[in-house]
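Exercise 4. Each item below gives a protein and its sequence. For each, produce the structure-token representation.

Item: Zinc finger MYM-type protein 1-like (Sipha flava).
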Amino acid sequence: MDQFVIKKSKPKDSTIENSLAHKNDLNIKTPETCIPSSSFTSVDIRINDIIYFVNRVLSHSEIHTVINNIWTPDITFKFPIHKNFDKNKKGQTSKFQFNWLLRWRWLAYSEKEDGAFCKLCVAFSKSEGGINGQKLGALVINKFDNWKHAIETFTKHDKLNYHIKSVIDTDNFSKTRNNPSISIENQLDTARNTIQTSNEGNFRELLRYRARGDLKFKTFFEGPGERNKYISPTSQNAIIDCCNTVILNKIVAKINKAKCFTVLVDETADVSGIEQVSLCAKYVDVDELVVRKDFLQRSG
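Answer:
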């Protein structure tokens, strides 16, 4: 039998080969090796799934996310079906119902765990709650997925003390976030700044308080002039020394009247590291027949 040799003819137009070579240089895959787009699966990560906030100490921004921006399935979401078996091994199916989210606004569903949580208790409840510090469980630190008893459990949870407290905390959190000026911390800071601005010192504030019930003294204290009021720092120190002398003389008189006494000395360093010596006396007050321990002086 004769052998036939078939020779491959060269293309008339060399531009075809050049274009194919250029195509390979660019690593462009031919249709036979391309992966169809339908083979790729999109991964939808629920960043705000409630499970990522459970059993954690949350920041203010995270609490805000749990309350207002937690992931919530829409009405078209297909919830997984659970199959339960009774004593007779008869199967019953159940699943999370979307209308539960409308009935209980505090309810949140975790797609990752296929379970339900109370987002308010997740945000504000601690490790214990209820009467006698009951340990928190389902809907707070653990998922709830017994859909057969869901309505009963959700209704009961609605009346728990720690849930009611979480509802109040949520309301307060929302109010202070929308209007920071009403927060306790800001009110204390405002009051402290006001006091620091208007306070002229303990001595002058005591005089101003005393002037409320004495019209003549109030007229003198709030009237014109500064030098004749004896409220300068020098005058204040002189008045303090006079008070010290009067009180000390009274204590010494009682000690001398008691005939016998004990001197108590204690030495300690203040915040600046300087040693301070306190001198006290222990004696019997013969007028009241009681043992007294009075402070006398301090030196340092």
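Check: DSSP finds ten helices and nine strands in the chain.
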